[in-house]
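Why does residue order matter? Because the sequence determines the fold. Keep that principle in mind as you read this record.
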Amino acid sequence: MTLPAALATEFCRLVGVQYPVVQTGMGWVSGAKLTAATAQAGGLGILASATMTLPELRTAIASVTAATDRPFGVNLRTDSPDVEDRVRLIIESGVKVASFAQAPGRETIARLKDAGVVTMPTIGARRHAEKVAEWGVDAIIAQGREGGGHTGAVPTSLLIPQCVDAVDIPVIAAGGFFDGRGLVAALAWGAAGIAMGTRFLLTSDSEVPDPIKARYLQASVTDTVVTKAIDGYPQRVIRTEMVDDLESSTLTRLPKAVLNALRFSRLTGTSKRDLVREGLAMRSNQGLTWAQLAMAANAPMLTRASMVEGRMDVGILPTGQGVGVIDTLPSAADVVSSIMEQASGVLARLTGVETRSLEP
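Structure:
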């Protein structure tokens, strides 16, 4: 595919990918198959490691490496008890990008940079972009209000220009993107690419159960809600009976959350001691109440119920507002190629329009 020079961005050169398109690290969704398919298509696929044990992450990295020789990334939680072991694994495995849902510390950033790994946290406010840039990260994903899962309050159209003006590293725009027109818009705001979660979740390479995908495809742009009832933080999900129950039920939420948190610890290999220690740290550092803390520990189980087990009755459906304009399940390769082709066409139209005087 011959592309306009504008689509070969600084981010492409930094990471070594063909196209400035990122598939985000969605828990329980971004496994080896989807990540490898995105990478092979020329974008940056990112494995979601927070919902994997360390041995599972090792296996997933090996699977992606066996499927493609192109760059990919791994998403990490900085508050994971074994985060240093995961960082070591990423370095030893030759993973190109380490992305973070929370800001990594200076020491972690320096360790990764010294090993040649690109560090790229996700942020939702200009001040956060400034802080992590000062710490030495290589790029950022700036997610606006339209994005899925945990999201901030600033719309994408305002957040991206703010961040681009604030830092001198590549900014990847996230929140509401689904096609080539969005990529051109992001470039116009000064971004170096786009990141998408929902669009890649709704592909044939995503291993989310078909009934769950069907429910996503039914949603409109007004069928989502941002709620704090899941884990105490604003999170965009499809509005379901389960979400309505969580928002209205305050008496039964805590005991159910504790039981599900214990289930999650068994699935991920996290000891009860580490779970309690992590919880205490979250409560201290993030100011959570005990009820919010229990829900935060429970949230991965709610997502797993839908994304892995296919149960909408007890699961949640994290999503961006872009879900309302998606009605197909193409391959990841088709998503990437169609975005680049459409972006090329939009740029040709914009640059090829004959100019005329505005004077009467």
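The mean pLDDT is 89.
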